[in-house]
Amino acid sequence: MGAIADSFFSRQGEIIGSAKLIETIDKVATSSGEVTYQIVGVASKLSIPNHAPTEEVKKLADTLIKNFFGYNLLQGLVARHLYMFELPVQERNSLASAVGISVRDQRNIEMRSMATKKLPGKLAHPRHAKSLIVKMRDSFNMNNPVVKGLEERYQTKAKKKK
């Protein structure tokens, strides 16, 4: 249940999270007074890179300290932000301590997971790019008669323009 709620709130934060919408989200969250709206508001701010709403997280953590489920949800949102985005060490420490996350433990987890990460780093290049194109050409979409018809139509239009 907690994992579902965590994924729901983090996804909602990603959907509405935009630097241009921060003021609007704050107005909605504060006007309702509901803790749920405040969590969604914090989730939206935590989905923005280089933006750590530490004071807001501290206030919300104080509100949720007796609510085990809500507090763990907030911890998950903060942990995801710490994992996904680079922050200055001081901000990282204050954000983590606002919800009782040990930066040392989080760093150890990050270092252990480096060996198992599946996504390539910035310096990685596709090894067999040509074979990927061949695979795509042989895929279902490329063998679909409708797609082939569209492809032929666009090729003939391109030839006519030349």
What would your notes on this structure say?
This protein has two domains: 2-116, no CATH class; 129-161. It has ten helices and no strands. The chain has helices spanning 2-16, 22-32, 35-46, 54-64, 68-84, 89-98, 103-113, 129-137, 140-143, 145-161. It is elongated, with a radius of gyration of 23 Å.
Q: Spans with pLDDT under 50 lasting ≥5 residues?
A: none
State the domain count.
Answer: 2
Give the topology string: H per helix, E per strand: HHHHHHHHHH
State the major sheet. Answer: none
Mean pLDDT: 76
The span between the termini is: 60 Å
Number of helices: 10
Helix content: over 70%
User: What structural class should be given to the helix and strand makeup?
Assistant: mainly alpha
Overall, the morphology is elongated
Strand content: under 5%
User: What is the radius of gyration computed over CA atoms, rounded to a whole number of angstroms?
Assistant: 23 Å
Strands, total number:
0
In brief, what are we looking at here?
The protein has 162 residues and is mainly alpha-helical. The chain has helices at 2-16, 22-32, 35-46, 54-64, 68-84, 89-98, 103-113, 129-137, 140-143, 145-161. The radius of gyration is 23 Å and the shape is elongated.
Q: Keywords, please?
A:
mainly alpha; 72% helix; 0% strand; elongated
How would the blueprint of this fold be written?
Layout: H1 2-16, H2 22-32, H3 35-46, H4 54-64, H5 68-84, H6 89-98, H7 103-113, H8 129-137, H9 140-143, H10 145-161
Helix pairs in contact: 1-3, 1-5, 2-3, 3-4, 3-5, 4-5, 4-6
